Amino acid sequence: MFEYFPKNYVWNLALNLAMEMGAKIGELDEMCRPLLDAARQGDDAGTQAFLASWEVMADKLIAQACQDEERGRLLSAGTKLGRAATYLLTAERMQAFDYAPRQALYAKFQDTFQRGVRLARENCERVEIPYEGDVIAGLYTRAEGVSGRAPLLVQVNGLDSTKEMLYRVGLPAHLARRGVSSLCVDQPGTGEALRLHGLKARVDSEHWASRVVDELETWDDVDPARIGLQGVSLGGYYAPRAVAFEPRFALGAVWGANHNWGEVQLARLNREGERPVPHYWEHVRWVWGARDMDEFMELIPKITLDGVLERVRVPFLVTHGEQDRQIPLKYAHQTYEGLVNSPDRELKIFGDFEGGVQHSSVDNSAYGLDYISDWVAERLGGHVQ
């Protein structure tokens, strides 16, 4: 893991995520060098300075993109806006949930991202799925070279990621080249579902996952018999749970197991293991809609896959980084061992030979992208050649 900020895992995690989404090292250095002293103050202090520095770079790229547009260089403009959006999202993700400028920053990010996708003519379409009188938003990437109905992998967030992060890390592009479409969604508790619609996370992830399948079954370019579900980080809980209770999913996969997230919270209260975002306890209560820590502590024993996984009767891939500092490796073994009725289960531990040894391969996603996309394509009827 690239550790620009000494002894500050949370800030380094944000930096590594940005790199996996396409950030440039020179731009990162320009943004982060003024923040070295602030980073030494801990995870929470200095996050407003972090925002200011990263937004300056984003604004510079947006100005450069405007110059490109004026000269008719739309592809170049789109590329710059894509990086600017990554920097804005990274800055927004680091703030306390109730920090007032966060709302405007998120709107700016959304606008910048969508403009960049449009100008760069990316294989990415925003969609909205009806849900509980509201909507779940997603990013749809179509399979390449497929006529008629294509297989599709739904991809869901963890605790603090967004559909744009899933898209930028690159699994949709890898799958598209293998003849598999993708739908990255902001499920309840994440992204714009949380920020714009107030939809909180649910223990019963099949509740919203089933609504996603309902919608996909109406699309004339998706094969309803070949829809899979993959989750990253806390999605390592959401995805297996949903596959267990929603039999229409043809397979499941996780990039970072999360067998007993409630148990992990107890360890974090004892300062065991790393946390993914600043202002952590305020963030988790926001995500789950808990009014205080007492209410949150009453909820967390329910966030476990114990007694659930024997319901899974489709192929399932469990991947995990050998040196994951957030979710111990033992939870990957627990998930794999629980999949007793899966006809095709696999446990893949990313070690030093492959890289991607940290949480959800945030230190190097390249091997994980190849491995997961190949595994999915082989089972959903895509191709790997």
From TrEMBL:
Location of the Peptidase S9 prolyl oligopeptidase catalytic domain: 212-381
GO molecular function, one term: hydrolase activity
Domain of life where this protein originates: Bacteria
Matching Pfam families: Peptidase_S9
Keywords: Hydrolase
Protein name according to UniProt: Alpha/beta hydrolase
